[in-house]
Amino acid sequence: MSLPAAALADGKGALTLGAYSSPKPFWERGARLDEFGINAVLVGSGAIDDALLRRARAEGARVFAEFAAFNGSGWLKDGRHSDAWPVDETGKPSPKQTWFLGVCPTNEEFLRWRLAELEKLVSRYSLDGVWLDYMHWHAQFEDPQPGLPETCFNASCLERFRRDTGLHVSGAADILGRHERAWREWRCSIVVDFARRVRAVLARHAPKMLLGNFQCAWRDDEHDGARRRILGLDLPALAKVFDVLSPMVYHGRSGRPVEWVRQNVEWLAATVGGVKVWPIVQAWSDPHGHKVSAGEFEHALRGGLSGGASGVMMFTIGAVAEDPEKMDVLKRVYRGLAA
Ligand SMILES: [Zn+2]
Question: In the CATH hierarchy, which top-level class contains the domain 5-338?
């Protein structure tokens, strides 16, 4: 498969040939990032240190930190901060959805804590950018059978909804019965508002850093419009705040054929303008489920660079490092594109 013309629009050198998660397993195989054509690594904020930054840069790679937005698992652990637990339309705490637990995204104490953590990260390390992860209302979209609860109707959200919209509402039934449209739009605005606050932190401390976002890869019409309706994600509005959107096109985990990667990236690039698209594709094999072959990984990687995308990365570089055939694929594809 040759590289689509759109991906070449900025010139070949502009492509971001990325690797997600700590490159340590890759380095432990004796490999170098530049030898494989990798020019960017995207690493969880907790795994960033000076040695990693030095080595990645010495091998020609930019370093981006993944930063969790609305992941409530640590904050809500052991019954703490119960006021930040997402509440469903019956007034009960909304349960964890498989492995994921979100948070009430209007809980100001939680939000300030995340922004303070971000400030520490970008002040401490000279990074090339920050990628927000888990930035959506509580739900699970990474499983073939998604968990899509209606949240959040706690005191904080009701009060903020009333204040922002001027609507007099008595509770969840009233909102969903009479003001559903305003509610869904307001939920999207809450997510955009947080993204803007993150942007403001970068503007103060690290204005040159790129701001990216790992995104749910559903189209508008899938799951009854759940990306907007339940997750609260308005792509055109988010595209105005972020420099890069990274749809998580995990075909195996989502129970989709590998061709879906290309189709989804083409759809996204055509739907949002003015923002770069760097998808993250699946290299990882589920020990209890779908195994991603080296051939499938190649298909996903090339599909990820179609339709106007100007970068790609894989979940995860560790999964590539443990399979010599995937290492060969990575080297061939990236070196071919970087040449
Ligand atoms: Zn809430």
Answer: alpha beta
